[in-house]
Structure to design on (343 residues):
């Protein structure tokens, strides 16, 4: 198996079997939604629908980009996509580099047969731009899987602790700027579990990104994952990054483009808090991976659980829809407040 495919396969095994939970919290325990003892709403009429990148979603929830390139990835992506299509939420695939380098792997990312209308987001690593990837590869990644948009992932912490990782991160921002001008599809920039600061979000907004996914610290730790793959320094950095709750609030202060939230969003209450802090939608990785290796049915149940929990939180704050919910006051305490006070 070529190196990229091997690595992808290792990642899935490690994420499912080892303790790859970030050593710091995402910060949602510091975020309080205010209970309304008299909601005056019929629970069944609470409306979680949103529109994102021109598509309607049943709830502001998406599957975060994870995999592709191996036979097990094909099954995982199909289960995720079928469940997301039926639930009415969106989905990203994992890095498409393997498929771009080896056309035979296209089927492991292709999900339109089971998810014809779902919001589908392609994925490429930003580090590839320092090695000659550009607008053509991005367009190819989108069009070959009939995606609606592409996410460019930033994973400097992971690459730097990998013995074979990419070290040259020069010229990435100008590459993103050039691509957003020429691509003709929306481009999202996402982190992979170490967070995006308000300052970086501002640079990405100016470069033409249509949204940023903060993918903060507090969920899957990619430095921890690498520590299980022959990286002694991975363990040293296993608590690196900006906690998700901080990253959302910080980015919300500095940019106007939609903010997506991920990194340690493990249930609908976490998602509700992320949205109350300013996220337009949440993306979830590891929890959906755990069910997708089992079945599409289990994945669909998990998605429905998350949406139901979000709906309960909305109801209990007296919100009839997402717009109303986003206007509710949020109390921030503890470390998250201390962090935000110093920004
Ligand atoms: C098995 C696995 C593979 C991943 N591969 C990618 C990838 O190829 N591209 C990417 O942008 N993010 C990738 N991620 C990162 C996730 O999209 C997400 O940003 C991160 O895991 C934090 O979310 P979580 O705490 O819900 O897991 C991967 C995550 C997992 C669990």
């Amino acid at each position: 198996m070529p190196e990229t495919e091997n690595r992808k396969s290792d990642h899935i095994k490690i994420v499912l079997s080892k303790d790859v939970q970030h050593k710091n919290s995402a910060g949602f325990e510091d975020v309080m939604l205010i209970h309304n003892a008299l909601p005056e709403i019929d629970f069944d009429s609470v409306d979680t629908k949103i529109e994102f990148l021109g598509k309607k979603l049943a709830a502001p929830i998406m599957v975060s980009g994870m995999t592709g390139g191996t036979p097990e990835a094909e099954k995982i992506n199909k289960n995720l996509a079928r469940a997301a299509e039926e639930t009415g939420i969106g989905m990203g695939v994992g890095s498409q580099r393997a498929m771009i380098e080896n056309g035979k792997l296209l089927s492991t990312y292709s999900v339109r047969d089971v998810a014809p209308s779902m919001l589908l987001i392609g994925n490429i690593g930003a580090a590839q731009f320092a090695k000659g990837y550009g607008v053509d590869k991005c367009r190819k990644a989108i069009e070959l899987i009939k995606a609606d948009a592409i996410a460019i992932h930033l994973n400097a912490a992971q690459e730097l602790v990998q013995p074979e990782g990419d070290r040259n991160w020069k010229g990435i921002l100008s590459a993103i700027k050039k691509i957003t001008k020429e691509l003709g599809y929306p481009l999202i920039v996402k982190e992979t579990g170490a967070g995006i600061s308000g300052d970086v979000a501002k640079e990405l907004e100016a470069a033409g990104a249509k949204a940023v996914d903060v993918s903060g610290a507090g969920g899957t730790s990619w430095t921890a994952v690498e520590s299980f793959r022959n990286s002694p320094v991975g363990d040293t950095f296993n608590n690196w990054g900006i906690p998700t709750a901080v990253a959302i609030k910080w980015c919300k202060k500095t940019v106007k483009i939609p903010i997506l939230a991920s990194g340690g969003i493990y249930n609908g209450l976490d998602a509700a808090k992320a949205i109350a802090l300013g996220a337009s939608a949440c993306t979830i990785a590891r929890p959906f991976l755990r069910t997708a290796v089992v079945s599409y049915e289990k994945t669909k149940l998990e998605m429905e659980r998350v949406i139901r929990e979000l709906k309960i939180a909305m109801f209990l704050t007296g919100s009839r829809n997402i717009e109303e919910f986003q206007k509710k006051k949020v109390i921030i305490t503890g470390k998250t407040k201390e962090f935000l006070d110093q920004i």
Summary: The chain has 15 helices and twelve strands. The chain has a mean pLDDT of 96.
